[in-house]
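Reviewer 2 asked us to include a model.

Predict the structure of this chain.
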Amino acid sequence: MFHVFHTMGADLVIGANTIVEVTHTRVNMPRLWWALSRVKVEPVTERTAKASADLLRTAGLHGHEHAIDATVAEMALRQPGPVAVLTSDIDDMARLCGRHVRLIGV
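Predicted model (structure tokens):
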């Protein structure tokens, strides 16, 4: 996928908190570091957190379950368009992003 997106000239962007979400004992850490070297990692700042909280309220979702989804949505909405989000949770991401981002199920 990295090759396809880079060939298209697309920027791959993730939030820093996504690194925490995907890490567990079975993750091949050298492979994760390699993958991260090929993407732009956006920090989660106070501004990001406040904007993400607004998205959660608007969507009627709770931060306990959807905090990382909200930060991903906020970062996606801030990127220059067109923007696509790869997600395993199309329904919640659609509530957070509205029609401003193309969602691709994985």
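Helices lie at 2-8, 16-22, 29-36, 46-59, 63-78, 90-97. The first helix runs from residue 2 to 8. We have added this to the supplementary material.
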